[in-house]
Amino acid sequence: MDHIGADRFIVMGMCIGGPYAAGLIEAAPDRVAAAVMFQTIGYDNNRDAFYEMFDSWADELKPKHREAGEDDWTRFRSNMYDGDFLFNPATPREFVASIETPLLVLEGNDLYHPSVASREVAQLAPEATLIKNWKDPADQPAAREAVRVFVEENAR
Known about the structure:
Elements: E1 9-14, H1 17-27, E2 32-38, H2 47-61, H3 70-81, H4 93-98, E3 103-106, H5 115-124, E4 128-131, H6 140-154
Parallel strand pairs: 1-2, 2-3, 3-4
């Protein structure tokens, strides 16, 4: 954002973008005007699924990156998936509970984006609003409008 000269901005993140948005709020709370988190990744007895996904991806890349040893891949996977909340050990629940930045959270509902993760963010963050239904085509117009209004209200 420094590169494009943006002092304040609204961030939107889907999947792991939700934890990244929280990380931006933590790193520069005075610059993030608001954040939208679409189906944030999270834990709900699914850590092995994330490990399997990472390991499959890493196995494809290892031949192209021989400079990285097994310890490097193990640390990378750990850095990605060994936190206990928002996949970011540096962003604990206590931090999310202190976020004063307006958040709009669109609930996930699958293995990698369990509803419990979205609900917990929305419950913890004092300025969060949760949209439960948005993936079904019938719900998308209302959800799209809610996102538009949220962005417009927080862009001022």
